[in-house]
Structure formats: structure tokens, C-alpha cells
User: Fold these one by one.
Assistant:
Number 1:
Amino acid sequence: MTSQEGTRATGGAGAGGQIRRLVLHGATGAVTRCRDFTATALTDWGWLPSATDEDQERADDVLLLVSEVVTNACLHAGGPQELVLRHGDGLLRVEVSDPSPEHPRQGLPRSPALPGGHGLMVLDRLATAWGSVAKPDGSPGKVVWLEVSRPSPPPWLRPRPADPA
């Protein structure tokens, strides 16, 4: 798991995948809206409902990660502007843009007993990779991204059980 400031991880969520965008400029309830938007996308892409406990844990991880990056944008970066989900080849890429040029930096380790300050630790533990880049269009701000791999194929690609003869 890596934090890569200024670089983009390569993954299957690019060409040939599906992309969903949620514009958030000035929206209230951004965290809830983003979680609901992501849950709908995960359902459409076959992550939910989950076939196994591992698949359910991964979908829950995605929703927690979306909550974390959107909350961080709300608390530290002037609010989220857009959520982008890119899905393809067993990989989900989540991107949250905000107006702040400051990239996330992990601070000193904190006691798990203390509230707050654990968002980047959650990203490190649950995301396959994460980082931040300047906005690609050159406008002020950045995009915080994370990638999560899918533990098993969607239901329509799973092998069917053999019919007993």
C-alpha cells in the first residue's frame, strides 16, 4: 500500500472501464451523498449484494474509504468539489477533487484511543494504493485518489454450478 504524491498509479480502471461523476460544489451532506452514490455504483457493478464475506468486507471498505477522503476534503481542504468513480478490470479507482493545493501528509502516529487523525492510516490499511495529484485541468487544487481491487468476479462472470445429471 502506497501513498504517492504527484504520481498516478496505473490500473484497470482506466480505458474500457466505466466512469461515474458526482459534482459536489457547495453541496450539503457531501459524505452521505458520496456514500450513497458509491453504494449505487457498487450495486450496478456487481460488488453488492456480496456473494461472500470477503466480498462484503471489501465493499464495506470502499464505502468507509469514500467517507474518509470526502470527510478529509470537508475538514482540511475547503470541501469536496467532485467524486469520480472509475471501474474496470477488477479495480475501482475513487477520486475526490478539492480546491486546496495542499497534499495529504501523514502526521506523527497517534494513539488509537484518541479521536480523529486516523483517516490516512485507514487509507494505508484498506486501499490497494492511494495518493494525490494536481488537478489535471490546471485549475487550483488537487485530486486525492485511491484504488481498491475486487476480491472476486461479479456474479455474471462467476462459473455456474454444474447441473447434477
Number 2:
Amino acid sequence: MSQRSLTQLLISQKTALVARRFTARAARLFKSAGYTNAQRAPLRVLKTAPDGMTQAELAASLQISEPTLSRRVARLLADGLISKQRRPGDGRANTIKLEPRGYQALEQSEAMAARDRDILFQGLSQEELDIALKVLSLLAARIAAPLNGALNEDAQPDEEEDADA
């Protein structure tokens, strides 16, 4: 195995490990506030939609199914963090909005998350963070792209594309 292949393998393994650990850490962090990271996600999206969203729009933006979102919405409604009202002109759809209590819960959890990120990224320069972000963004885009024969043994990356990576 070449050094490049070994490094690529190690990066893919470390990325998966870091993603799992970030998720687990967030779960522990937000458990103290009484919410999971999954419950916070709809609040973050609704914060960007002051007029609210339908449940279908919210599910699509979170890339989860409507039944999965329904359970989260029920909990957030019970806690008074969001509201749900019939959409004018469409009796079948509901508009879900972030309520003041939801803004407050989100702001508190975001402050906790920011402090935790400061701890995790301590000692890294802005240049190092920028490079990490560039690499992760590129990988995220390429992973999201269709395979289109990428697994074909004859397919070789362009030298120019390879140089960017």
C-alpha cells in the first residue's frame, strides 16, 4: 500500500471516528439541558424561518422522515419550545414555529456548544482550521455526489483534481 493510500485510509477512518465521537459528545453535553442533539436540530432550522415551516418542509430540510420528525415535534410542542397551527388556506398542513422559549433553549445550548468547541479546537491556528474545513467540505461534496462509475477499476482521478485534494 502506498503512503498516499494509507493516508487516505487513515483519514476516512479518523473522519468516521470523529463524527461518531462528536455525536456522542453532543448527546452527553445536551442531556444536561434535557434535550438531545436530534431535538435541537429542528429548533436550529426553525430559527432561520421566522414565518415557520410545514412539517414536510422541516423534515426535508433535516433530511429525515416525517414520522421521525413527528416524534421530535411532539416533544418540542409538549415542552413549549415550538407551536403548531393550521396553515391558512390549507387545512391539511400545519405551520410549525419556534417560540420564545425555544429561542431561549436554543441560545443556551448553542452557548454550551460554542464553549465545548473552544475546548476541542484549542491550540489550532486559524490556518489549520481553514485547511481542515476545506478538506472536509471537499470530501462531503464528493461523498454526496453520485458514484457514476467511481468504483470502476479503470476510472482514475484527473491529475488536476488529484492535486486539489
Number 3:
Amino acid sequence: MKPIEKNFFDTFTDFQCLILAHMNRGDINGITASHYNIIEFILRKKGSTGKEISSAFKITPAAVSKQLKPLINNDFITQEQDETDRRKFILSVTEKGKFVVENSETFRKKITQQTTTILSPAELEQFNYLLSKVLSEIKL
């Protein structure tokens, strides 16, 4: 690894750890980072199904079921049979699940506010441009 790549790797690792440490604080409520991502997906995409989660996250339906079970059992999401297709189950986020997402959004807003005080408007614009460019090209 070139020195500049190593520097970026180290900085990115620190940034990732900051985010994951905050997300894993939710584990107090029985939520892992993977669970959080599923809850947020369901909240943003109302009426979603396990099949849609499987497709969006590129994981097997069995893996989705394994992730959904504790979320349903701990009242973060609900699962109801579709009225028109009995094979289809619609997922919804409960108030408890919404609280978890709102808490994370508060964290993101706090980081955004702190970043805007650290960087100049021009630096912030450049940072946003570069981050958007990387995110649009990365395929995992």
C-alpha cells in the first residue's frame, strides 16, 4: 500500500469506528448495525417485504428471516400478511423502531453540525463533492 493509501485507510478506519461505535450503542436495545440498517430501510420504504430487503442488501431470504426474527420479537418492526396475496408479508416499523432511527439521525445531524464548524464552506463543498463521487462509484 502506498503511503497516501495507508493514510487514507487509517483515517477511514477511524471514521468507520466512530460511526459503528455509535450504532452499536443501540445494542443496549438489542439492535446491531445490521438490524439498524434493516429498520431504516423498512421505515424509508413503506410497505416493504423480506424479498425487497433480500434484493436491496444482496443477502439470501433465509439471512433476512434470521435478521427479522429478533426485530419482530423485540417490537422494533411488525409483519402482517398482505390482504391480496397471502404469501406476501408487509413489514412496518413500530414506535420503538422509529426511536432507534431518529436517535441515529440526531447523531448524523450532530456530526454534520460539527463538521460544518471545522471546515470552511469551500472545504465542506469539496468534501461533499469528493464523498459523493466516491459513493457513486463504489460497488460492493
